């Protein structure tokens, strides 16, 4: 299994003005630095919680279908996204394509070949009753491609307040200690750890 980003978020989950206010920074000298740190903080939060904050397109690649099992999407909340929800993704998602036994790429049809349980945690793609997953080309690595979009929305206001706060806390922490080496400044702030543990333990999207 492999997961890659097809199209990243158009904006960050917090505005530059919000983060600068939180960091108590008035000057514009470090704006590009703060923007870079904020992007890294957002990625840290997303990787830790497996939750995508702003709409992002992913491609999940499998060597074969999971036989009887469901396909679990490794990022939440996953959504049904019409074409062009994200710039550069000009087709509806989730979309499943695979290489069949004859070496031809096929596209599966929603509600005919598969069904979506995106409100589950993790989100799942399941077979309709009495159906089987298709046979894929033997020995073909990456023979199944699942493209999907995850995220709370396209703007910062759609992101849950706790997760937005986590990004601000971590951005401020890394900004303050950006010159530190060794152990100093590398520990995750306790407030951030508490927020991440709440979302990491899950039970809800």
Give a description of the structure:
The protein has 205 residues and is an alpha+beta fold. 27% of the residues lie in helices and 19% in strands. It contains 4 helices and 9 strands. It has helices at residues 16-23, 31-49, 161-176, 190-201; strands at residues 2-7, 56-62, 71-72, 78-79, 95-99, 105-107, 115-117, 124-126, 144-150. The strands form 2 sheets. Strands 1, 2, 4, 5, 6 and 9 form a 6-stranded antiparallel β-sheet that branches. The chain is elongated and about 60 Å long.
SSE map:
Elements: E1 2-7, H1 16-23, H2 31-49, E2 56-62, E3 71-72, E4 78-79, E5 95-99, E6 105-107, E7 115-117, E8 124-126, E9 144-150, H3 161-176, H4 190-201
Antiparallel strand pairs: 1-2, 2-9, 3-8, 4-9, 5-6, 5-9, 7-8
Helix pairs in contact: 1-3, 2-3, 3-4
- Please provide the count of β strands: 9
Helical content class: 25-40%
Number of helical elements? 4
Poorly predicted runs = 181-185
H/E element order: EHHEEEEEEEEHH
Q: Tell me the β content.
A: 15-25%
What's the multimeric state? single chain
Average pLDDT rating: 90
Structural class by helix and strand composition: alpha+beta
Query: C-alpha Rg, in Å?
Result: 20 Å
Q: Which properties best describe this structure?
A:
single chain, 205 residues, alpha+beta, 6-stranded antiparallel beta sheet, 3-stranded antiparallel beta sheet, 4 helices, 27% helix
Task: Please provide a brief summary of the model.
With 205 residues, this protein is α+β, with helices and mostly antiparallel strands. It has helices spanning 16-23, 31-49, 161-176, 190-201; strands at 2-7, 56-62, 71-72, 78-79, 95-99, 105-107, 115-117, 124-126, 144-150.
